[in-house]
Amino acid sequence: MARFWCAVLILACLELSTRVGTAPICSYGQAGCHTPSLADIFDRVIQQSSRMHGISSDLHSEFEQYFFPSKNLIGKPKCHTHGIVTPADKENAQRLGREQLTEVILRLLGAWGDPLLQLYRSMSQDQNQDFNHYSSNKALEISDMVHELRDGVAKMAEKMKLSGVLGNTVGYISPEGLVPSSSFSFYKHGELNSMDHHDLLYCFRRDSNKIKNYLQILKCTTLPGLDC
User: Fold this and answer.
1) Longest dimension (CA), the chain
2) Residue closest to 218 by CA, chosen among 96, 132, 83
3) Exposure winner among 31, 43, 46, 75, fewest CB in 10 A?
4) What CA–CA distance (Å, rounded) separates 104 from 99?
């Protein structure tokens, strides 16, 4: 009997510690919720951007190996985001103000919503089912991640404004205002071939790497001393 009650007591303590240690996280400070700090939000968007870049890099490499094993046949594409001025290296990114760097990140994320969705639709309809069934699912995954990350960065910017480390000039940027409309026309006509798929994957791998690096730099300039 003593052993039974000892087991009951242990289970009760475990249940209590679980309830105490797993307070739900929320954005608006409701009762019983933990409002994430700015450092928490930075960590989340950086982790998301790293995962997004990893998936896009893997997909681009696998696509090249499957369709273009001889890379000599592939030229360097002109990406539709070439009109978005981005820092060339870490030093230039660090010299940008927080407002400018945040806007660059939002512009890059916003510019990829339609092209990635078009890529998914084109891949899912392609007759090369051996590879494109897998790749179209990955394209849809990174398309969803772009939207989620853009929402996360927008919330991060609002938190920065409330903390007084970001000006009120940073706001919502519509995708249509990011790049010239002619840059989107190629991706909207719905007739993409394997080379078009490759170019989009190449460009997104490049831009997702920029987004990941810029977020890390933005964190370090905003919250110096935290893993920088």
Assistant:
1) 79
2) 96
3) 31
4) 9
Would you tell me how many other CB atoms lie within 10 Å of the CB of residue 216?
Answer: 19
Determine contact, residues 118/187, Cβ cutoff 8 Å. Answer: yes
- pLDDT at residue 128, rounded to an integer: 66
List the end-to-end C-alpha distance of the chain, in Å, as a whole number. Answer: 56
Query: What is the rounded CA–CA span in Å between residue 119 and residue 83?
Result: 20
Average confidence (pLDDT) over 166-181: 59
Across residues 100-104, what is the average pLDDT? 94
Contacting residues for 154 by C-beta, under 8 A, at least 6 apart: 106, 172
* CA distance readout (Å), 228 to 28, 99, 105, 131, 150: 28, 20, 19, 39, 23
- Nearest of 103, 116, 104, 85 to residue 184 by alpha carbon: 116
Q: How confident is the model at residue 226 (pLDDT cuts 50, 70, 90)?
A: low
- Asked if residue 70 has pLDDT above 90, the reply is no
Which CATH number is associated with domain 36-222? Answer: 1.20.1250.10
Query: Quick one: CA dihedral 154, 213, 49, 114, positive or negative?
Result: positive
Give me the amino acid identity at 84: I
- pTM of the full predicted structure? 0.79
